[in-house]
């Protein structure tokens, strides 16, 4: 939540990227993006960008790269494409852009999720940094995406402050 003395201008910016062939093709509406946006705004983040793309490695990495290097978005959340299906390419697309991985975020999400469903062991979600952005892959379902965001949310402000150089690492 936003602290009482925090200016709205001090809120961190977020981009949400939904990777889904069906949502991008108009076969089904995206429900994950709106659920994440609501959760993020309740936590005091400003959702600056939201986009839906097909499960295409080039489209996913281009969106992440643009938001990180051109727009300077603080947090880029992807949703979808982290499983074992042949079109699940979000981790590969993310790895093409990030410079450093943040495995603790990946581990925390899987650890929490496996308590809910054993299928969480199959997640290949990655997290890392590019430019001054933190990129995190989330599951494709709205329930899973929100649950995983809530796992990492307590560490996000500190992580962003470290990445942008606002707070020195002790």
> CATH class, please?
Alpha Beta
Number of helices: 6
pLDDT < 50 stretches: 1-9
Q: What does the main sheet amount to? A: 6 strands, mixed
Rg, please? 15 Å
Strand segment count: 6
- Specify the helix fraction band: 40-55%
Provide a descriptive summary of the structure in words.
The chain is an alpha/beta fold. The protein has a single domain, classed as MoaB/Mog-like domain (Molybdenum Cofactor Biosythetic Enzyme, Chain A, 3-Layer(aba) Sandwich), CATH 3.40.980. It is 41% helix and 19% strand. The protein is built from 6 helices and 6 strands. Strands 2-1-3-6-5-4 form a 6-stranded mixed beta sheet, sandwiched between helices. Helix 2 crosses helix 6 and helix 5 packs antiparallel against helix 6. 39% of the residues are buried.
Brief digest:
Helix 2 (32-42) packs across helix 6 (142-163) and helix 5 (103-114) packs antiparallel against helix 6. This protein has six helices and six strands, in the order βααβαβαβαββα. It is globular and about 45 Å long.
Reconstruct the topology from this structure.
Blueprint: E1 13-19, H1 21-24, H2 32-42, E2 46-53, H3 57-70, E3 75-79, H4 90-95, E4 100-101, H5 103-114, E5 127-130, E6 133-138, H6 142-163
Parallel strand pairs: 1-2, 1-3, 3-6
Antiparallel strand pairs: 4-5, 5-6
């Amino acid at each position: 939540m936003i602290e009482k003395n925090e200016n709205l201008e001090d809120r961190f910016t977020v981009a949400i990227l939904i990777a889904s062939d069906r949502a991008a093709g108009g076969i089904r509406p995206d429900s994950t993006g709106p659920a994440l946006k609501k959760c993020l705004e309740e936590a005091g983040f400003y959702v600056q960008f939201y986009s839906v793309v097909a499960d295409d490695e080039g489209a996913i990495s281009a969106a992440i790269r643009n938001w990180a290097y051109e727009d300077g978005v603080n947090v880029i959340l992807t949703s979808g494409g982290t499983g074992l299906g042949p079109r699940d390419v979000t981790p590969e697309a993310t790895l093409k852009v990030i410079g450093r991985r943040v495995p603790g975020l990946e581990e925390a999400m899987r650890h929490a999720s496996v308590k809910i469903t054993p299928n969480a062991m199959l997640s290949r979600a990655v997290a890392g940094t590019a430019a001054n952005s933190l990129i995190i892959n989330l599951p494709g379902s709205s329930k899973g995406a929100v649950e995983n965001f809530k796992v990492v949310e307590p560490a996000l402000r500190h992580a962003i402050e470290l990445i942008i150089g606002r707070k020195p690492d002790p």
